[in-house]
Design goal:
single chain, about 120 residues, alpha+beta, 4-stranded antiparallel beta sheet, 4 strands, about 20% strand
């Protein structure tokens, strides 16, 4: 009975140490993505942005959310696609400004549609 108990307890203790590790996955620095998106905007668009552009929301997205793909176009070959969203003073009428950026090359892939 003791052997069976030890056989069950030892793996559970080892798994608890592995599962409780404090190691965190590296966080991605999205500053370059914000900078690329901001630099791509026209002066008129920049004037509409509310707040500091350095705090724009950045999120990783799938290719199927691109406006080009949604309207039937051919999707680009991008492995790490991000959407940078800038809040504007015209959000209630047109929606926010959204810029899709390739996370690897930092090149602009597309822009979100505004109404």
């Amino acid at each position: 009975m003791k052997k069976i108990l030890m056989f069950l307890i030892v793996p559970m203790v080892i798994m608890s140490f592995v599962g409780c590790s404090n190691a965190k996955p590296p966080t991605e620095d999205v500053t370059d993505l914000r900078q690329a998106a901001w630099s791509s905007l026209s002066e008129n668009a920049k004037e509409e942005v509310v707040g500091d552009w350095k705090f724009a929301n950045v999120e990783r997205v799938e290719l199927n959310v691109l406006p080009i793909v949604q309207s039937g176009g051919k999707p680009p070959q991008v492995d790490n696609l991000y959407r940078v969203t800038f809040k504007t003073n015209r959000d209630e009428f047109l929606g926010p400004i959204q810029v899709y950026v390739d996370g690897d090359s930092k090149e602009i892939v597309s822009y979100g549609t505004r109404l």
